[in-house]
Amino acid sequence: METLPQALLSDRGLAYGQGLFETIRVQHGRAPLAADHRQRMLRGAQQLGLPLTPAQFDQALAQGLARAGDALSVIKLVLTAGSGGRGYASPAHPRVSLSAAVFPYSPRPELQYQQGMAIGVCKTRLADAGALAGLKHLARLEQVLAADEVRAHGWDEGLVLDARQRPLELTSMNLFARFGDRLWTPALDRAGVNGVMRQRILASGLSGTGVELCRRPRVLADLRHADEIFACNAVAGVLPVRKLALWHWPVGDLARRLQSTVENWFLSP
Questions:
Q1: Could you count the other beta carbons within 10 Å of the beta carbon of residue 170?
Q2: Tens of pLDDT along 110-140?
Q3: What DSSP string describes 51-100?
């Protein structure tokens, strides 16, 4: 058993999950989606009452980039409310902590990109998160439990439902389904993570595709009637979903088009 330093034990991110994180893909010494990650962390910090500035974000990211060099890497930025004693109430003047860790980029198997993922439905449900809905905060125990289910069953990813048994997201990716010329994605106004790649796709990735966006709630059984299903995150990009239990979907044209669009985002100067 490892004993943690007292300073770490008093950090509110460890004690209460009071903080945020961003997982940033680095390619050829650059972080092409850095501005998107900065915007989300700053918005989340404001919502949590954490005094983070753009300059602090940029400094931490620069430190991570310096350590990453030219290697394909993933930088994880972790923001916490800093040290604040034992009680739940935040310090009157929190002194935030922002740290960067660098990890090797481990791409998913090429077969998943080409033929799609096989997923299962997790027993773990995401509870309504209220004011925390959409945030990439540090309190991720539901995702930990869901990811353990994925590993136990040997799935590529797990579909996580909300408290009303409706599809919400995958264990580490946002969910999309195309029904004809309508593209559906959960609203994420009550639970789930509003991913950076999801935001990018909704803001600019659908231009010229001819699809209309839809965010109305859907039940699980609706997915069997989809023309294609795919998922995304800021590290892996876009991956099709080919199978859920006895349901099967082809790899669709929209997923293929978005895969190309996303790779161009990562490769463009």
A1: 24
A2: 999 999 999 999 999 999 988 899 999 999 9
A3: ---HHHHHHHHHHHHHHHTTS-EEEEEEEE--B--SSSSPPSS---EEEE
Match 């929190």 to its residue by tokens.
Answer: 94
Name residue, tokens 């699809």.
Answer: 211
Question: Is the pLDDT score of 269 beyond 70?
Answer: no
SS3 category, 201: helix
Give CATH for domain 6-104: 3.30.470.10
Q: What is the Cα–Cα distance from 98 to 110, expressed in whole angstroms? A: 34
Strands (E), 66-132: 73-80, 97-104, 117-126
DSSP label at 111?
Answer: H
Let me know if domain 110-267 sits in CATH 3.30.420.10.
no
227: which 2 tokens? Answer: 């023309």
Q: Which of 136, 157, 185, 261 is catalytic?
A: 136
Residue 46's pLDDT band (cuts 50, 70, 90)? very high
Topology match between the domains 6-104 and 110-267: no
pLDDT at 208: 87
For 144-171, give the DSSP string: HHHHHHHHHHT-SEEEEEETTS-EEEES
Catalytically annotated residue among 124, 169, 171, 228: 169
Is 169 annotated as catalytic? yes
The DSSP 8-state label assigned to residue 10 in this structure reads: T
Q: Are 163 and 125 in contact (CB under 8 A)?
A: yes
Report pTM.
0.93
pLDDT single digits (tens) 181-224: 999 999 999 999 999 999 999 999 898 888 999 988 899 999 99
The domain locations on the chain are 6-104, 110-267
